[in-house]
Each structure stands twice: as C-alpha cells, then as structure tokens.
Write a structure and sequence with these properties.
Helices cover about 45% and strands about 15% of the residues. It is built from six helices and five strands; from the N terminus they run αββααβαβαβα. The protein is globular.
Length: about 150
C-alpha cells in the first residue's frame, strides 16, 4: 500500500466534488506506475455505471490493450459497490486499497463474497479504512452542500 496513490485518488475525488459529482476517486497502479485514474461522472455522463472504478478500469484497458490487470492495484476513496467489485474481480486486479468503508453495513459483506476466489477468477485482496477521516470529511461536506442547495 502506497499512501501517495491514495492521495492521487483523493485528488480525483476533489475534481468530482468541484463538478457536483459524488466525490469518489480511483487510481489503478501497475509496477509502481499510475496507469489510469478517474472520478465519478454519473451526473455529467447521465449514466449509472459511470463510477470512478469502472471509468478507471475502462481507461486502463485501453492503455494496456488488455482486460486482464494481473499485478495491478486499485486505490479508491470509498469501498467499491457490488457492481464495481465485480468489475475489479473480472479485471483480475490483485489488491483494492480503500480509504473508507461504505456506510451500508451489508456492502462490505457482499464485496468480500465477490472478492473470494471462484472457479474462474482469483481472489482479490481487500483493505479498507486506510484514511477514513479524510474520506468522511469530503463526503460529508458534499452531501451537506447538496442538502443546502
């Protein structure tokens, strides 16, 4: 786990925040190099799948010219949802490093199940709550601003 990559994910979350998107950022790293980064764009793209993780995976696939991300890690500012967790597993990302657990207590159980190995894909190592305070602050600030608008 490299804190610099998590900070880069937070830079993307800040961009999302400034654009009125839920402030979640993601960074994919391979061999110590950032190969893609993204932030939520659900509102601007008017698309329910435009989560930071999905967009980062799409960009990385283009860059690597491959859908298999062996030896890649993803850094996110909030635990992935089940959709994103499934995409992460399908991409064969090795490690997920998350700043904050999702407030939905069932989410962690669901994604832990998704990240287990199965007959097709290897397991995904998942570490959460690496910078809870920083993530909670930007999310709380965003939703407070939304309520006051």
């Amino acid at each position: 786990m490299n804190k610099d990559y998590l900070n880069e994910a937070f830079k993307n979350a800040k961009i999302a925040y400034d654009l009125g998107e839920v402030p979640i950022g993601a960074v994919i790293v391979k061999n110590g190099e950032i190969i893609s980064e993204a932030y939520n764009k659900k509102e601007s793209m008017n698309c329910c799948t435009a989560h930071a993780e999905i967009l980062a995976i799409t960009e990385a696939s283009k860059k690597l010219n491959n859908w298999r991300f062996e030896n890649c890690d993803i850094y996110v500012t909030l635990d992935p949802c089940p959709m994103c967790a499934s995409a992460i597993k399908q991409a064969r990302i090795k490690n997920v490093y998350s700043a904050l657990s999702n407030s939905d207590s069932n989410n962690k159980n669901i994604i832990n199940e998704i990240f287990k190995s199965d007959s097709v894909n290897p397991s995904v190592n998942f570490v959460s709550d690496l910078d809870s305070t920083k993530s909670q602050i930007i999310l709380n600030k965003f939703f407070q601003k939304q309520r006051n608008s």
